[in-house]
Amino acid sequence: MRELRTEGTVVDGPVAEVGTTPAAERFTGIADAASLRAAGFTDVGAAADVPALEGRSATVDGRRVAVFRLPTGYAATDAACPHKGGPLSDGLVADGCVTCPLHNWRLDLTTGQVQGDDTVVPIHDVLVLDGRLWVRIAADAGPAPAPAPRVTAGDAARLWDPTASGATSRAAESAPSLADGPGGRPADDAAAT
Q1: Which alpha helices (DSSP H) does 64-118 contain, by range?
Q2: pLDDT tens, 130-165?
Q3: Which PANTHER family match (predicted)?
Q4: Containing domain of residue 158, as a range?
């Protein structure tokens, strides 16, 4: 997952760009970092760290968000796809939408509408001040979505091991293992030939 870096110094100054959300456009008069903080915005990193038509993830008030750079500005939504928790910041960005890399759910980054479904995801406010991205969680966002389950290496081995549940099969018994040498012979035998 690609993340924004938050190190650096924020210098007060005029707002350079406004995000694509209608709510963000109400804040064009805010001209310094202290005012943005007072309005509930969080500095999530350098705007330059988000390449055109890509996304990056960050944390705002304990909530994982994905920030995208569109031709018209920036947009932000929750980082996890509402379908199966896929990392939206790694998704394909085109035509004002992001497509989840796991199952191709497509979300409109202006309205939050999931195409082909009744689901609407929150679109968070985004502003750029002196080259820094500022995000505020949408007032109607509700509780943060549950994080996607993490699969450890041990979990993955059990998921793919046909004998893990005690069941065996001829294919599993005869399949070469990673410890086998060429042709499925034990590594010691393979080295002797």
Answers
A1: none
A2: 999 999 999 888 887 766 566 566 655 555 555 555
A3: 3-PHENYLPROPIONATE_CINNAMIC ACID DIOXYGENASE FERREDOXIN SUBUNIT, FERREDOXIN-RELATED
A4: 153-192
